[in-house]
Design a protein that fits this description.
It comes from Agrilutibacter solisilvae. This is GNAT family N-acetyltransferase. There is one protein chain. The chain has six helices and seven strands; from the N terminus they run βααββαβαβαββα. It has 200 residues and is an alpha+beta fold. It has one domain: Gcn5-related N-acetyltransferase (GNAT) (Aminopeptidase, 3-Layer(aba) Sandwich). β4, α4 and β5 form a beta-alpha-beta unit.
C-alpha cells in the first residue's frame, strides 16, 4: 500500500503520543500538554498513514517560532532563517519501508518555498549511525555539536541547504501561487509566526 502524508487530526494525538514515547532513547519523551502545544502552534505537524494506520509523524517549526528547545535555540543563534525538524518518529514495524523518506520529501517540498535551509539534530549515543547515514544520504551535513543542558545529551547539529528557495523567492516573493499542494499545512489554529531573515 502507498504512504499518505497528511496533517495530523486532533483525535489522533493520543496515538501520536504513544508512538513518540515508544520510540526509545533517540527521541525525547513527550507529555500530553507538550504534544497539545505542538498541535496548536507547530507550523508543520503531519502523520504518515499506511494500510489505514499511523506509521509515524513529523513536527517542524520555522526559525521565527517561539520554540523553547535548546537545540532550536542553538540553530537560531547561528542562522537567521531555517525550517527546524523538531522530531520525526516512525513506528518500529514500519522502519526501512520508506516512511522516513516520504516525510523528508514532503517536509522539503513545504520548506524549500519558504526557507533557505532545513535543520535538525541527531543524538550521538553510539547507536545512531544508521540515523546519521540516513540524514547524510538526504543531503544533511553536520555544522556543529551541542550538549543539551536539560538532558546532558550530545547531539550532532545538521543542516541542509534548499537549492530551490532562491529561485522561488526571486520569482514569487511572498505571493506563492494559490494551489492546494503549496498551501500552509496547518492554518486552523491561528496565525503562524512571522518569517525572519532574507533570501541569500
Amino acid at each position: 500500500m502507498s504512504i499518505v502524508v497528511r496533517d495530523v487530526r486532533e483525535h489522533e494525538l493520543d496515538s501520536v503520543l504513544a508512538l513518540n514515547n515508544a520510540a526509545g532513547p533517540a527521541i525525547l519523551p513527550l507529555d500530553a500538554a507538550r504534544l497539545r502545544h505542538f498541535y496548536e502552534h507547530a507550523e508543520y505537524f503531519r502523520v504518515a498513514e499506511r494500510d489505514g494506520t499511523i506509521a509515524g509523524f513529523l513536527i517542524g517549526v520555522g526559525s521565527g517560532n517561539d520554540h523553547d528547545s535548546s537545540n532550536f535555540r542553538w540553530f537560531r543563534e547561528r542562522y537567521p532563517d531555517f525550517f527546524y525538524i523538531d522530531r520525526i518518529v516512525v513506528a518500529s514495524r514500519r522502519r526501512g519501508g520508506g516512511v522516513g523518506r516520504a516525510f523528508y520529501a514532503d517536509a522539503q517540498s513545504y520548506a524549500e518555498m519558504r526557507y533557505p535551509q532545513m535543520a535538525c539534530e541527531v543524538f550521538l549515543d553510539g547507536t545512531n549511525d544508521p540515523v546519521l547515514l540516513f540524514h547524510g544520504s538526504f543531503g544533511f551535513r553536520e555544522v556543529g555539536q551541542h550538549v543539551m543542558a536539560e538532558t546532558g545529551t550530545r547531539a550532532a547539529m545538521l543542516m541542509k541547504p534548499l537549492c530551490s528557495y532562491a529561485w522561488v523567492r526571486e520569482t514569487y516573493g511572498d505571493a506563492l501561487p494559490n494551489q492546494p499542494w503549496i498551501a500552509q499545512p496547518r492554518i486552523a489554529h491561528g496565525s503562524l509566526p512571522p518569517r525572519t531573515g532574507t533570501c541569500p
